[in-house]
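In practice, a research group might receive sequence data for several interacting partners and want a quick structural hypothesis before committing to experiments. The following worked case mirrors that situation: the sequences arrive first, and a predicted assembly follows.
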Amino acid sequence: MKINLWGVRGSIPTSGPETAYYGGNTSCIDVWEDGWLLILDGGSGIQKLIINPDLKTKRIDILLTHLHLDHIQGLGFFKALFDPKMEVHIWGPASTTRTLHARLSRYLSPPLFPVLIRDLPCKLTLHDIENSIFNIGPFTIQSAYVIHPGPTVGFRVTGAHSVLAYIPDHEPALGKSAIISDSKWLSGFDLAVGADLLLHDAQYTSKEYQHKMGWGHSSIEDAGRFASIAAVKQVLFWHHDPYRSDAQVNEMLAAFKKDTNYQYTCQPAKEGMQIVLK
Amino acid sequence: MASYEIEIILNRQLADCLSIPVFITDIIGNLIFYNEAAEEILGKRFEDTGEMPVEQWSTDFKPLDEEGLPLPPGELPLVKTLSDALPHHKTFQIESMQQKNQHISVTSYPIIGRTGKMLGAVAIFWKSKKE
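A structural hypothesis for the assembly, expressed as tokens:
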């Protein structure tokens, strides 16, 4: 399984030299295996996504964790949606009242965007998902609701030899008890358990989190603890705060590593990074 | 065992913040969480008991009608909620740990998440104004 990171920033794209190293585009990754392509989230990073000519089919699947703007704002600039030869499937969390199509249309329609979903030239299919398991090519995908405002899922992508867990926006510590170490009571645990690689929200320091409780994101300390309980092998900390410079991301990681001694390897996610899981 | 759905987890986190007693059960009535205030009603600590099967915790909880006679389980709001997936409310007596009867009001509601599936039920207790 090969994974390319096209956007790792949280909330809003950033530009400028102070965030150039880790990157300023919002959430988007691609996952390749056996000539099949999955795209997870359609943040601004999707605009730069290059479709490998090894793609076996004319099919692309875009899996959205939720519909906050930083996870969909790049969709209208993704070239495959404008290619009539392409078959594009968009999967996103179901809401109790409106379809995925209706909710995506709020963004992909005037006055926010000039092109309507129904006018996109590709062959487009939308799928409402919830706590689901489905197969796409060589991948088995599990989606499950996780703690974040509004309908939000995380994904567990299982390939032939490896498992990726993707939970970019997640607040498992929400509540008086914070993270409950009993895995039955831990949001997202089933998605992450034993994964070869976990991409997880770590927007805040624990001090910052005290003032951002309920906003749907994690401190790096909580993300670290979550990863430890889930016994993952490797973690990439995700959703860097748009106000945080590269130097501050490094300081945050250094402080985290100084205070903890977890078994997994970890680092901040970096735009442009490629990871191969074997 | 798989994790609980987030609707159950969030109900626990909410209950944990409340000073009124709260029970949370799964769909068959097993008591999967009770908060600190509810520990007084059961005379047990969640930390000590963990989750309790319905047969176990229902014998610790002794509801009585106005005449002080045992209340059939089918009359209890939580049992009704588990059966019909609707909210219920009732005032009745319970025998306290000190063998003294006290009036309590109970409101129960079903936990039905985004998937539309019944996941469990919550009962909230408070001392009735009759006391």
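Before designing any experiment, note the following. The longest helix of chain B spans residues 6-17. The first strand of chain B starts at residue 22 and ends at 25.
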